[in-house]
Amino acid sequence: MADIVIAGAGVAGAAAALTAARAGARVLLLGPVADAAGRDKPGESLSASARAVLEAIGCADLLAAGPHRENRVTYSAWGLPALAQRHAAGHPEGNGFVLDRPAFEAALADAVTAAGIDWRREMALAAHATGGGWAVTLASGEEVQGAFLIDATGRSATLARHHARRFRADRLVACWAMLARSDVEVEPTAASLIEAVPTGWWYASLLPDERLSLAFFSDPDLLPRGISRDPALWRQMADETQFIRRWLESATFSIDAPPRLASAATTWLGPAGHMDPDTGLGWAAAGDAACGLDPLSSHGLATALWTGQRAALAGLAAVGGDPAPLAAYAQTLAGAVTDFLLQRSRIYGLERRWPDAPFWARRQRF
Q: Pick from 290, 279, 281, 284: which is nearest to 154 by CA?
């Protein structure tokens, strides 16, 4: 039986597995490879705070070795009809990164393999307590055993949602796409851009391969009907912006397909971990299973790494009979969510140009 069984092999799951393995624990990682190399997915911003976690899990060179770029400057039109410029040089932690997300996750997967971690590339469907631990049912129907359970299955929180309450602050949705240039001779600006509009806000960032990651965030009821099928609607929405439109036009980025949609809601689990005082069985959630934050924070990937590491450390202590680190982990995460909600309220409150627009009116009530 494994000391730690981890459901979900994404960023949080990999961080948890590497942390536990480096401590000498018997680790069982469950889940398919996060994404096949080359498959696009949203979420390419990595804040500078992630460096410490990457070093702690033995991946200090991962960023330097990969095809990533430092995010030195971000522009925003938020609260005013003009661009403000923020340089990373003024940030105490230094530059963050714009990732080649598939390459980043592939490198984490390689690190897991190199560490000799037992990795079953099957999805975990359910878990139940047994006399001496957890029995986790795989998609194949097989059961595997572990003394401590970590749920890193993403926003679905496939296993942990049965042991804690799921909270939701909003229903934010991301419409996103990766755009190529029609004229490759044009040199695009290596930057990120945020622009608020009456129905939500836009985000664009130049990727390391010089494509543009473009996303629009709004509430489901405010999106045009058919947006996920009609590229003309997507182009029309972008044309109604001021600064996003200029960037697309000047760098010849073309919208040739409809966007994909994904949940970007702020959600969290309470508590994010628990150890039964009678049975001694413990579990923890990590990554988006523990808390999925509004993308405005740009902390999603760093949070996934941190929660993966901390959940594993708490699990190791719980297996050794000490429940205190697990309780502290759950308490720290709850406090972090509270702080984030206050910060989110403050940032959304800075935009007061459209107080009667539903998107902004909903967020002024926070």
A: 290
Q: In tens digits, what is the pLDDT along the chain, a chain of 366 residues?
A: 999 999 999 999 999 999 999 999 999 999 998 654 457 888 889 999 999 999 999 999 999 888 999 998 999 999 999 999 976 544 556 689 999 999 999 999 999 999 999 999 999 999 999 988 999 999 999 999 999 999 999 999 999 999 999 999 999 999 999 999 999 888 899 999 999 999 999 999 999 999 999 999 999 999 999 999 999 999 999 999 999 999 999 999 999 999 999 999 999 999 999 999 988 899 999 999 999 999 998 889 999 999 999 999 999 999 999 999 999 999 999 999 999 999 999 999 999 999 999 999 999 865
Q: Which residue in the block uniquely carries the two structure tokens 């099928």?
A: 229
Query: Around Cβ 339, how many Cβ atoms within 10 Å?
Result: 10
**Coil, strand, or helix at residue 310?**
helix
> What SS3 class is residue 70?
strand
Output the six-digit token pair for 349: 């409150």
Structural Rg of the chain based on CA atoms: 21
What's the rounded Cα separation, in Å, for the pair 147 and 127?
Answer: 12
Residue 37: CB atoms within 10 A of its CB come to 11
Q: How far is CA 360 from the centre of its chain?
A: 24
Dihedral sign for Cα 127, 35, 311, 333, please.
negative
CA 146 to chain centre: 26
Token digits of residue 144: 């595997």
How far apart, in Å, do the first and last CA atoms of the chain sit? 46
- Residues 204 and 193 sit within 8 Å (Cβ to Cβ): yes
Query: Residue 34 in contact with residue 301, Cβ under 8 Å?
Result: no
Q: Alpha-carbon distance 244 to 214, whole Å?
A: 9
